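Page 47, continued from p. 46.
Same chain as before, 271 aa.
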Amino acid sequence: MPISNIVRSAVAGMLSHKLSLDTIANNLANVNTTGFKAGRVHFQDVLYQNYTYATNAEEVRVGAGVRPSAISPTYTQGALEQTDIPTDVAIYGEGFFQVRQNDGTFAYTRNGNFRLDIVDGQRVLVNTDGLPVMGPNGGPVVIGPEASAQSLTISSTGEVLSSRFDELVGHDVINTVGQVALAKFVNPEGLEQIGQTLARESATSGAVELGTPGATAGFGQLVGGALEGSNVNTADEMTNMVTAQRAYSLSVQALRTLDEMIGLANNIRSR
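Result:
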């Protein structure tokens, strides 16, 4: 096996496990980020090569190291945290909120930290970046001026409800003033992560499907006045960090050992 292949395999291992360490560090940094999903690095071995070390000997197949094949989020459920803020909403189960970006394309998130704002002259539900939250009709969730933020509640099926006191009947009257939709994908792990807990559709995620929370089969339900925390498990991440650090150190040690072997061979030849 050529020395260059040994170096290549060791360096590939170092770079791959450094990427794993970077991903773990990012997970730990976002342990308190609403709606964050922990990332995982997936590895695959590099193509094998055949070597013959003696005349008439059988070929030996030797691997050429490792490389990362993908970094994908793990879409396990995060813990629900009660906030009692009327415009906050968490997803329990499958699905994503759909938001419209400034360029007109759609992005998807599990972060339901919403508020009311004016967009294009309309009072709509927006996320923390001011991007409009989409309803089932392909448009933003528009909230009329008669509904105050404190009077709103979001039901498990995504209905935005507003209560106000009606003097004619002598009690509060509840009206539906909007509807939040959920989106899902055949392969959510294939979504392209773009930051700020946002992701966008890709070829590997499959096409988006919109539905009503808690009513359409396969979609989760909503919990109003709550947010979904990150699904980062600090104990698991620390264990993964130790494993990745050990693998990185072994790759470094392989280079050191090779350097010692080359030095030893040079000393023997110089005698």
